[in-house]
Design a protein that fits this description.
The complex is a heterodimer. By secondary structure, chain A is mainly α. Chain A is about 80% helix and about 0% strand. Chain A is globular. In chain B, helix 3 crosses helix 4 and helix 4 packs parallel to helix 5. Chain B has a domain of about 130 residues: P-loop containing nucleotide triphosphate hydrolases (Rossmann fold, 3-Layer(aba) Sandwich). Chain B contains 8 helices and 11 strands. Classes of the chains: A mainly alpha, B alpha/beta. At the A-B interface, helix 1, helix 9 and helix 10 of A face strand 5, helix 2, helix 3 and helix 4 of B.
Chain lengths: ~350, ~250
């Protein structure tokens, strides 16, 4: 078989793999809608979804509560998966993600700040907290990206800047927690847990629109991102304007992460693990890696959402805790498996 | 190139180097570590800001894709196949749906370099020598007119060195490339280059055919070594470094 034919076959296999992941996502999404604190019969839930239910109570639970949560899990997971993949690529570091580089910490600080100012500002919490989180995710990302524009900035320097950013915002967050009233402190802690329970259709729409706008822009640079994997110098030699590409990517990541984290709080590990799994499945051609990271991120968070409802029947466990508890052992397994090879 | 200068902060890495490289010929740049060889090459590739003038066939800027640059570091972290790495040499024209001309160019470059056999192997699993061949195929796939190579053979065993340099010569002749290679191995420069440029402290101290440039006096100047020079089987000089010169 010629090299071209072999490569084409490989591409077909990658598409099929992503297709399978989408099927798994659909199954997980369905499970997410079917499960919940109220133990509703599966048949009735499906009938309600199809618009043929006759129980208004059931309709309210399924359509107003569960469906937005299931959708939110999928779009937030996809956003975090893509932003993690992009971060790992532009920083040439498999440990990069919005969580490890302080962008989520920035969002947490922004949210906490808004919670503290809650009594002062004349707007409702429902939108001020996400806005604060979004703004500070952008500021954190801007700090790291700003370092990247310095002359002679290397990926290592950017990672260090991100870690500095993480500590800075964690310290600022601790300061706010120290100053907060007991009620505000409780709100901050709950926000930081990460939860899908505050989901609503308008919020789902915001995250989905950001994802739908940013993903195609990133995909347009797919080959350049792939070239960047071979090092800055070689990519430059091939004609990539590395500095500009990084800056574009940072803007995209801050939008994706900001929008996702703003509504659901800090959810770690999805942005780290999903791209890793995707890379193992479809390789590093970013035309495949970015979409696969999105699908696997969505799958991971959707599955975590299902698990969060099954751990303690009748209650919903904070999803941020679930993703970390599933994510850590899984990640350790991945790393160890890589080390043995 | 005329009076090319490269500065890093206050340090001047390249000081007023002027030279002409011609199509179909290999120009080797030699000199001690830190003498400015790499900086000169990076300036020519447009990767670092420089003073002085670079002209390409009389034009001030090289046409897009005309310059192929191969950096020194040939580490490969990415989980890309050899074919994908070579295909990236076509980056300027690669579209979402890869067109036949790009695929054909990648395949032809792999055949030219003799690595078609391991097209689907991950680049990270290749030996250093094979990897260098893959990167050579990558630059060739871009159909450059000027080839700039930074120490293409330093990490390779003897047989891969000969293979890479032989391929370079052949490609330079066949494609009419203007090839500039930074080389550490003086005998490789003597055997494979049409012209040799010698650098010291950022300046050019010798330029000409290997037989004229590679003299004991110049090598003492450039590298601070005493060397015996004789004529090889093909009338090109053979350099045997003997000792570090005294009082250098």
């Amino acid at each position: 078989m010629s090299a071209v034919a072999a490569w084409r076959a490989d591409n077909a296999r990658r598409m099929a793999t992503s297709g399978l992941a989408m099927v798994a996502l659909a199954a997980s999404f369905a499970a997410d809608v079917v499960t919940g604190p109220a133990l509703l019969p599966i048949g009735d839930v499906l009938r309600t979804l199809a618009g043929r239910g006759d129980d208004p109570m059931m309709a309210a639970i399924v359509v107003q509560l569960r469906l937005p949560i299931a959708l939110m899990a999928a779009v937030v997971g996809a956003s975090l998966g893509v932003s993690g993949a992009v971060m790992q690529t532009i920083l040439a570091n498999p440990l990069a993600s919005s969580y490890t580089l302080g962008i989520s910490a920035g969002a947490g600080f922004g949210a906490a700040l808004m919670i503290l100012l809650g009594g002062v500002l004349p707007f409702g919490d429902m939108w001020t907290i996400p806005l604060g989180a979004f703004a500070f995710a952008g500021i954190a990302c801007g700090l790291v990206a700003g370092v990247g524009q310095l002359r002679g900035a290397t990926p290592e320097l950017l990672v260090l800047a991100g870690i500095a950013c993480l500590f800075l915002f964690q310290a600022l967050l601790s300061l706010l927690q120290f100053l907060a009233s007991p009620e505000a402190l409780q709100m901050i802690v709950f926000w930081l847990f990460g939860s899908l329970l505050r989901s609503s259709y308008p919020k789902v729409a915001v995250v989905a629109v950001v994802l739908a706008l940013v993903l195609p822009v990133l995909l347009r640079d797919a080959w350049k991102f792939t070239a960047l994997q071979m090092g800055d110098d070689r990519a430059r030699g091939l004609g990539v304007a590395v500095g500009k590409l990084r800056l574009r990517a940072f803007v995209a990541v801050s939008l994706l992460t900001g929008a996702a984290v703003a509504f659901v709080g800090t959810i770690g590990f999805v942005g780290l693990v999903a791209p890793h799994v995707a890379r193992g499945l479809v390789g590093e051609d970013q035309r495949h890696l970015l979409p696969a990271s999105a699908v696997l991120g969505a799958l991971l968070l959707s599955a975590a959402s299902v698990v969060s409802k099954l751990v303690l029947p009748g209650t919903v466990f904070p999803i941020g805790i679930v993703t970390a508890l599933i994510g850590v052992p899984f990640f350790a397994w991945l790393v160890l498996r890589g080390a043995r090879r | 190139m005329s009076a090319v200068t490269v500065r890093y902060g206050r340090r001047e890495a390249v000081r007023g180097v002027s030279l002409v490289a011609e199509p179909g010929r290999v120009l080797a740049v030699i000199g001690a570590n830190g003498s400015g060889k790499t900086s000169l090459l990076r300036a020519a590739a447009g990767l670092v800001p420089h003073g002085g003038g670079l002209t390409w066939d009389g034009a001030a800027t090289a046409p897009s894709g005309a310059v192929g640059y191969m950096p020194q570091d040939n580490a490969a972290r990415a989980a890309l196949s050899v074919f994908e790495v070579v295909l990236l040499g076509r980056l300027r024209s690669l579209a979402w749906r890869v067109v036949a001309t790009d695929l054909a160019a990648a395949e032809a470059a792999m055949t030219e370099v003799g690595i078609a056999g391991f097209a689907d192997r991950p680049i990270g699993e290749l030996s250093g020598g094979q990897r260098q061949l893959a990167f050579l195929a990558q630059v060739l796939a871009g159909d450059p007119r000027v080839l700039l190579l930074d120490e293409p053979t330093s990490a390779l065993d003897v047989s891969h060195q000969l293979q890479v340099l032989g391929l370079l010569r052949a490609a330079t002749l066949r494609r009419g490339l203007t090839t500039i290679a930074v080389l550490h191995d003086l005998n490789a420069a003597a055997r494979f280059a049409d012209e040799v440029a010698v650098m010291r402290d950022g300046a050019l101290i010798g330029l000409g055919p290997p037989g004229a440039v590679l003299t004991a006096a110049l090598l003492r100047d450039a590298f601070n070594v005493e060397a015996a020079i004789s004529l090889g089987p093909d009338d090109r000089p053979v350099v045997v470094p003997l000792a570090v010169a005294r009082g250098g």
